[in-house]
Amino acid sequence: MSSAAQLREQVCQIGRLMHEKGFIDGSAGNISARLDAGRVLATPSGLAKGFMTPDQLIVVNMAGERVDSPTPANAGLRPTSELLMHLECYRQRPDVHGVVHAHPAYCIALTLVGFDFAQAIIPEAVVLLGAVPVTPYATPASAENRDAIRDLIGQHDAILLAHHGSLTAAKTVWDAYLLLETLEHTAQILHLAGQLGTPRTLPPHQVVNLLAVRESLGLAREGDAGRFGVE
Question: How does 104-140 read in b/e, with b if 16+ C-beta sit within 10 Å?
Fold first, then answer.
């Protein structure tokens, strides 16, 4: 288990990577990490995530109330405006200790044209991401986003928010960030393939083999096979 100080450093590192790779812009995006059963470390609202410092992060309880002692660096800051969505992940998933919300361009673009992310096309995506659902549009920074993911987060580690962005959740905040990288890299490949023709899906028996690998890695979720149409 990482110490609180290490988690603060790691969250800032992830913020820098998200900014450098173009997964976020301006003050967009948010990151959180579970500290213990009742507390979550969260990025502040309105702050550029690529330039945060560890002492600017904020600790909240599971009701979303701030429970740390403000420092000169974060006294005037508020927790992320997407906190409700993060807390929903932690409430439903005791296994989740890190959540990342970003605005990856290729992912968002594909949601705008109705691309079906439940298609089995990229092997690594089948194994690492499963069938990625796309929520109906929900107003950013509102309870609508929490409600949009409420019935999905229990069985999905990666979710796309239509017209808006992505949500990834994992056993560590670093793993949640790596899922974001996989998600956007997959979307970029799918976009490029779409410029050349119609991407071909994998044969059902190969999807079954990939889902077996997914299960062997401890990544399987109930209903995976059905979502890929290989029950």
Answer: bbbbbebbeeebebebbbbeebbbbbbbbbbbeebeb
Count Cβ atoms within 10 A of the Cβ of residue 205 and give its class: 0-12 exposed, 13-18 middle, 19 or more buried. Answer: exposed
DSSP 54: G
Predicted confidence pLDDT, tens digits, the chain (231 residues): 469 999 999 999 999 999 999 999 999 999 999 999 999 999 999 999 999 999 999 999 999 999 999 999 999 999 999 999 999 999 999 999 999 999 999 999 999 999 999 999 999 999 999 999 999 999 999 999 999 999 999 999 999 999 999 999 999 999 999 999 999 999 999 999 999 999 999 999 999 999 999 999 999 999 999 999 998
Token readout for 145 is: 């986003």
> Which pair of structure tokens corresponds to residue 40?
């979550």
Q: Whole-angstrom Cα distance, residue 57 to residue 152?
A: 28
Quick count: other Cβ atoms within 10 Å of Cβ 28? 16
Element housing 83 (H / E): helix 83-92
pTM assigned to the model: 0.96
Distance between CA 95 and CA 92 in Å, rounded? 9
Locate 190 and state its tokens.
């799918």
How does DSSP assign 163-219, residue by residue? TTEEEEEESSHHHHHHHHHHHHHHHHHHHHHHHHSPPPPPPHHHHHHHHHHHHHTT-
Q: Strand, coil or helix: what is 117?
A: coil
